Amino acid sequence: MNAIEACALKYGASGAIAIVKDGMSFFLNTYGPTDMESTYLLSLNSRFIMGLCIGKLLDEKKLRLTDKLSRFMPEYVHAQSITVLQLLIKESGIPDFFAGNILKALQKDEAYLAMDQAARNRFDRELALCPYTYTQALEYVNGLPLTCVPGTHPTDDLENMTETLFIRQVIEQASGQQLKAFAQRVIFSPLKIQLGEDLPDNRYTITLNPDGGQRLLMAVTQRALLSEKAWAAITKKYVFGCYSIAFCSMLDMLSAREFTYGATGLALHLFFDWEGQIGLMYLTNLESPITRTPEGAQYLEKALVQETEAAFLVPRSPKLVPFSKANVFQAMGLAIAPDQLAFMNTAQRAICLATAFKHKLFILMEGPCAVGLIALSIDHKKGEYYIEQLLIDARFQRRGFGKIMLNQALAYLKAQGCHELAIGVHRNNVAAQKLYQSCGFTVSNIYEDFMRLEANV
């Protein structure tokens, strides 16, 4: 896995990286001042771990997502109006006692306001790690109205500390155990994962080593621990089209939700491709380094996901879909090899041109991963059809995706009434010429810098 090694060195990884494939360990290494004996401090308050616990409670029939909160916390004045599901998917309307109370009070603290930005960020992060209790949150919110009617829309796009503590309360009331004891019984013990000692201030934390992280990665990649019905319940997307009870899909692979120790950067990042039976782990003790580029922010976790996809992605069920806000970020992330820059536009430039000239722009998706794009010029009145742009990401070339995308585009054009089609290709772009010729195109004209190919559809 030379690309993974190069990626880790480029971004200055510190921690452990693991990849599993088809139920077996494919890659495991450590970077920076760490080794296989190093341990990492992580939070049990993560939506990922609590989501797995919710799934187990569903399997044990100790909880239903339709239950009212009054079953588990009757002392909360709005408990009868909110379901467990609404609490889990950020549609409870419960105010955030951390942001609305603790952080709000700091805005009147002169010493806090006098801090420089770095010191204030550090202070905020340490503050978020305090061992807040359900009772504290309850005392703050019990006299406040809900911010919205439960079930109408997400409260916000950030994690709500009150909701987190209320979820923990639901789990502990339903299971009859403290969160750590229950998680130990239903998650860690079955996987033979050894957890470290509790912190003296009981912050609901665990310590994990690379072997434990890889065991957890393997189990979730294989959808162990829970029934299929429970997995379906905690992976169904509710919020913003990308968040479920335990996972999110902000990157191309499914990822664990907020498995971090506050905001200090200590985290276990887990990514999954269940169809391909691929899992990726980055267990770290540092904040993720970010590199700013003209194409946008680049960071280690995203680069690792991209390299892991590149290592294993093959055509399974590729589908050509219209360019839209649902795939805009994946499309802009498509990259071409440096030696192809002389022949073709970057993805960003191709998208801009297609938008400006109102071409039909399509993205080839393999599952949640964008593989390529193609832009078509269609003039029904003149009966003119032309392929304006065609790009397959450099990571996925020579795997058959180009021919698949072109054939799907030809089928679309035929349905639009196209009978003859043309495209211009740079004379030195031999790979593109071979692709078009494999799909029935023949050379019609040759010019100084490019050649025109045509085909009957």
Task: Please give a structural write-up.
It is a single chain. The chain has 16 helices and 17 strands. It has 457 residues and is an alpha+beta fold. A six-stranded antiparallel sheet has the order 2-1-8-7-6-5, with helices on both faces. The chain has a four-stranded antiparallel sheet with strand order 11-12-13-14. A hairpin with a 5-residue loop joins β5 (247-248) and β6 (254-256). α2 (47-59) runs parallel beside α8 (161-175) and α2 crosses α9 (179-188). It is elongated and about 80 Å long. 39% of the residues are buried. The mean pLDDT is 88.
Task: Note the main attributes of this structure.
single chain, 457 residues, alpha+beta, six-stranded antiparallel β-sheet, four-stranded antiparallel β-sheet, 16 helices, 17 strands, 35% helix, elongated
Largest sheet: 6 strands, antiparallel
Structural class: alpha+beta
Distance between the termini: 42 Å
Overall mean pLDDT score?
Answer: 88
Which regions are unreliable across 5 or more consecutive residues at pLDDT < 50?
Answer: none
| Relative strand content | 15-25%
Task: Calculate Rg over CA atoms.
Answer: 26 Å
Residue share in helix: 25-40%
Helix count equals 16
What's the β-strand tally?
Answer: 17
Rough outline: elongated
Spatial sequence of strands, sheet with the most strands:
2-1-8-7-6-5
